[in-house]
């Protein structure tokens, strides 16, 4: 490994990981340390690396050749390609140690861990040698003052043993949320799933409703239900309001009828109404798959207005491929459905032109009772990313997007197991041995 004297873990998270020939492998998501019973610095066992397939695997430090400010490089060798699972004697430095509460050894001074530095030893091992801490101010008038940060040797900070991290008072999540700022919701969801239950709940408490809603949408069903059950009913209702109506309906459909009714009653009427409509359909039909919030305009809207709507950064990419033209009202269920305008057509039309002149009236619409297999064939036949759903009276009810179709075509546990095709992962990091087990046994 290239000569590096100290690496702060928070700066390591998110760095790209490359193989020995420069091939891209994934990104660093965390660092795994083996906690000890004595006061000696914990040994760094390896890195949690997220592959391009979103599978998270353990890469032992023996496989790391260089750590640079912009990247991590691996050596040729075998790595276990199974999904990373934390073992009892291990700690995730970013996930569990940052924001942890501790004290200065031999004193009653309380501190919070802001970062952790790993350093190489003469035996080529890496240890978690130093901690960046801030003193916790609790005296009246000082609670909001930002104290100075200090970097201290590991053995000068007490209260960070495995039992301490498991049983300590609830810790904040400010430093961890800072790491989440540059991550997509699906990547944050994968990180949250890897955390112990206590830490997962602390992160949920610290997140704002909009961000937590985005993350909840990306979690497997069982994790969604567990996290929703942990939240107070009032906050759970707020989170459901912040979710996409179709995702909220899918989650509520998994709950007991009494819980479902109670949460719907706590939601604002205008937020619960579309969710209730979706719950009336089976989840494997077009009605159950659709979102009731596509881009809907009247025929007298201009092309410029339509383009402004699909430029909205919060609009999912699939919904941005199509504008639905309907008679008033434009809220679903709308007035009579006229047709659709494909975004490529919008790009070719003068901005002042009316969307009515660019409407595709020949595209067949789906009925809400259409089965999943019918919807799949519909998307394949018309090469669409999004399609309209109308009722017998030709009112637009919503739109089905291709990502929702894929969600229902994939196995139920696809979010938990990741993608099984690892063909584009270099052979040097392919599964040949239980390296993670060996590293844990040596700790």
From TrEMBL:
Is the keyword Ribosomal protein assigned to this protein? no
Q: In this entry, which stretches build a coiled coil?
A: none
Extract the PROSITE patterns matched here. Answer: CBS
The record ties this protein, via Gene3D superfamilies, to: CBS-domain, MgtE N-terminal domain-like
Any transmembrane segments, and where? none
What InterPro entries does this protein's entry cite? CBS_dom, CBS_dom_sf, Mg_transptr_MgtE_intracell_dom, MgtE_N_sf, MgtE_transporter, PRC-brl_dom, PRC_barrel-like_sf, SH3_actinomycetes
Domain called CBS: residue spans: 290-357, 359-417
Q: Name one GO cellular component term.
A: membrane
A GO molecular-function annotation: magnesium ion transmembrane transporter activity
Xref: CDD domains: CBS_pair_Mg_transporter (cd04606)
Q: Look up the domain of life of the source.
A: Bacteria
Lyase: is it a keyword of this entry?
no
Keyword annotations from UniProtKB, A to Z: CBS domain
Question: Per its record, how is this protein called by name?
Answer: CBS domain-containing protein
User: Which organism encodes this protein?
Assistant: Amycolatopsis carbonis
User: What are the leading ranks of the lineage?
Assistant: Bacteria, Bacillati, Actinomycetota, Actinomycetes, Pseudonocardiales
């Amino acid at each position: 490994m290239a000569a590096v004297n100290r690496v702060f873990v928070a700066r390591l998270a998110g760095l790209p990981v490359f193989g020995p020939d420069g091939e891209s492998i994934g990104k660093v998501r965390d660092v795994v340390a083996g906690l000890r019973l004595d006061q000696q610095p914990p040994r760094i066992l390896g890195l949690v690396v997220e592959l391009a397939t979103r599978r998270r695997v353990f890469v032992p430090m023996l496989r790391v050749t260089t750590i640079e400010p912009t990247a991590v490089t691996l050596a040729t060798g075998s790595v276990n390609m199974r999904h990373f699972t934390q073992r009892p004697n291990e700690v995730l430095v970013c996930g569990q140690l940052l924001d942890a509460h501790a004290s200065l050894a031999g004193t009653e001074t309380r501190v919070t861990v802001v970062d952790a530095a790993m350093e190489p030893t003469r035996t080529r091992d890496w240890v978690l040698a130093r901690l960046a801490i801030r003193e916790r101010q609790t005296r009246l008038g000082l609670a909001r003052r930002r104290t100075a940060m200090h970097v201290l040797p590991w053995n000068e900070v007490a209260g960070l043993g495995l039992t301490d991290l498991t049983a300590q008072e609830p810790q904040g999540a400010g430093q961890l949320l800072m790491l989440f700022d540059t991550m997509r919701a699906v990547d944050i969801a994968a990180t949250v799933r890897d955390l112990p239950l206590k830490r997962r709940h602390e992160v949920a408490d610290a997140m704002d409703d909009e961000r937590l809603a985005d993350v909840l949408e990306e979690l497997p069903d069982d994790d969604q239900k567990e996290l929703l059950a942990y939240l107070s009913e009032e906050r759970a209702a707020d989170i459901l309001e912040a979710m996409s109506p179709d995702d909220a309906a899918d989650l509520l459909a998994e709950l007991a009828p009494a819980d479902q009714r109670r949460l719907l009653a706590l939601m604002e009427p205008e937020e619960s109404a579309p969710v209730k409509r979706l719950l009336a359909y089976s989840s494997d039909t077009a009605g159950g798959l659709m979102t009731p919030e596509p881009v809907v305009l009247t025929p007298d809207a201009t092309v410029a207005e339509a383009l402004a709507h699909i430029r909205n950064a919060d609009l999912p990419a699939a919904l941005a491929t199509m504008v639905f033209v309907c008679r008033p009202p434009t809220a679903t269920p709308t007035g009579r459905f006229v047709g659709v305008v494909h975004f490529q057509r919008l790009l070719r039309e003068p901005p002042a032109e009316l969307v009515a002149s660019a409407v595709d009236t020949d595209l067949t619409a789906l009925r809400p009772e259409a089965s999943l297999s019918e919807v799949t064939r519909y998307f394949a036949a018309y090469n669409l990313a999004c399609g309209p759903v109308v009722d017998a009276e030709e009112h637009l009810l919503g739109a089905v997007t291709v990502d929702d179709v894929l969600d229902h075509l994939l196995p139920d546990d696809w979010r938990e197991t990741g993608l099984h095709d690892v063909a584009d992962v270099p052979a040097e990091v392919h599964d040949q041995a239980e390296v993670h087990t060996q590293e844990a046994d040596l700790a």
